[in-house]
């Protein structure tokens, strides 16, 4: 409870400061740090988060808060320091950091809505309006009113804002602020209780009413949903019974259950000597509090069992645990294994949950009803206290990096949060990031190693196939080599499963006109469209724009569009014709877009109702399917061509991870890796499954060129829809940065500015994109430089031009 008249509030707006508000006496008992409040801000109302008490408001007059929006804090007091650290490090407004951390749908604010007035309707019906005005009225009539933002977005008129102001002045339109309500809400159900008292009045008790009373008397308390199983019309009958005093009706919160089918409890397996030694090492160091570990080991070495034992230690000591996994598809497998061990002590947080499900899981954690949270990157913000251990599985995975809004890295935040809670953090991977391995070399992390598979099986045998010798072949042999086809047939004959990997979805990736040779490009992005045969459309994988299959060439209007290239859909079609007796399934973003489809497909693999699985990187990491004995990589070179200094690292990690899916059961595994660059060190190291060889080759290049992990880096992404305005703003930003460096010689020598330069994909979703890279051996120097640039008077805000700050960027495209 707040004891002072004033509170410190962070609002959900792009502002780098907090604000002091006054608490009316009637709301003081309801206010607790971590709760949301509705506050006036200028001429509108927005959501704010209570950060703490304030003794006074200084020389200013504080406004009153309007309402308290929660009955319980959404995050503990101890997490506020963590949020402030994130805002400071990632140069992001504190209010938006908290908004990102919380379940989506909890942001109340005024939004401008446009309505047609009575005068506007009369003039429209009488035909007294100009064409532009009539068009606006017609649009609003069809939508029955809409937000001002929607109207501006959907209007072809470039002067729509001026037109709306004119129509509002002439009383044709009304623009008013409407409070947007929460999208996510707490779910409550009716519960019927036996009162055991003499009724206040007598009513006629029909057979069904008597049946209801008998059930309630027996159960003492029963939900309406359960009662309706016995008496389907109970909802209509309980009201009069409650009014007469026979029963009581209350509303109680219920938690929606996003977990899968029930699982049988498991018996912990006997640990290997390596696992035992490793766990004992962590236990012996437990008195030290914060210790960051890098757990490396071959695929199938039993890292998950180590995680579960360490989580069990934390829970048994009365503490909590966070387990991060990179892919939603992988959460299902991890969640099942943890539920089999820990029962109902877990919560799950990821983006495939509905707004309501995620809010319920969040409240379970905030109320202390569960002690373990499993989730994707956003789970690092979970509202739990007294953390005993944090696990980051597949720590190298790029999915831990958020690429929009608050561009945080959950792996790095796991280390920060573990330090704040003085607990160990385990970063696990068979192919660790260069950053984490360098931290081991610098004695910042402690290395733990598992060198053998738990079933004592050897690592799969990997064979490289040079695709250059098939470049002149026609038909399927150019894509699926004879060597791979022979191995697939042998695998099927033994009754095993094969995984065919290609990190490119769709049927054809390069459609081009036969008449003029022009490629079919997206109208809004500088990339070619991809043909999806199952949907009979051409689709842009960046903005989602689609074209019908019978589209004409935009250049010559020709009708003959030829589909070159290949993706997972085409590979699936080829394999069906080559192995008609085999059962095939495809797992990529297209086949798993519906809720529950990922679980269904993974279940079919686990139950062996499919023989060949065609998949993208969704299947490349962490999954444990004992019946997969063959992995075929269609093209190992795809990620090598990316204009990014991490291209070699990503290629090695992806290939080594997908190879590790083979031979995890009793049968030995085999991998066929097709490539045009068999001599490339990343591919050769993946063939040997030798991370140390890869690191020793990669690290000197990074050091010579001053790239992470030997320097710190911030990327400025400047974009907008007006190409000239964007270019002008880029020049302003670059000029200010260089002038700031010139005026600060103490940091000028250690900081290097690269660019500005057009992004590798110059236009996405009609936004023109530029970037500036700032590098230095000192993180504080480049952070101070960017903050000074943002506050510099020479940086004038331009409409529809944005500057996104990406600290420790992962993607440079």
The shape is globular
Could you list the spans in which at least 5 consecutive residues all have pLDDT below 50?
none
Supply the helix-strand structural class: alpha/beta
| Rg measurement, Å | 30 Å
| % residues in beta strands | 15-25%
Major sheet attributes: 7 strands, parallel
- Give the total of beta strands: 33
Helix content: 25-40%
Mean model confidence by pLDDT: 89
- The strand line-up of the biggest sheet is 14-15-13-16-17-12-18
Give the number of helices: 24
Alpha-carbon distance between the two ends: 48 Å
Quickly list its features:
six-stranded parallel sheet; seven-stranded parallel sheet; 33 strands; single chain
How does the SSE layout of this entry go?
Layout: E1 6-11, E2 19-22, E3 36-41, E4 44-54, E5 67-68, H1 79-89, H2 94-101, E6 109-116, H3 118-126, H4 131-143, E7 146-147, H5 148-154, H6 160-169, E8 173-180, E9 188-194, H7 207-219, E10 221-223, H8 224-230, H9 234-244, E11 247-253, H10 273-284, E12 292-297, H11 303-316, E13 320-324, H12 328-342, E14 346-349, H13 355-366, E15 372-375, E16 387-393, H14 410-421, E17 425-429, H15 434-441, E18 446-450, E19 461-466, H16 482-493, E20 497-501, E21 510-513, E22 530-532, E23 537-539, E24 546-548, E25 561-564, H17 568-578, E26 584-587, H18 597-606, E27 612-615, E28 628-633, H19 647-659, E29 670-675, H20 681-688, H21 691-705, E30 712-720, H22 723-743, H23 745-748, E31 751-764, E32 767-776, H24 779-791, E33 801-807
Parallel strand pairs: 12-17, 12-18, 13-15, 13-16, 14-15, 16-17, 19-29, 20-27, 20-28, 26-27, 28-29
Antiparallel strand pairs: 1-2, 1-4, 3-4, 3-5, 6-7, 6-8, 9-10, 9-11, 21-25, 22-23, 23-24, 30-32, 30-33, 31-32
Helix pairs in contact: 10-11, 19-20, 20-21, 22-24
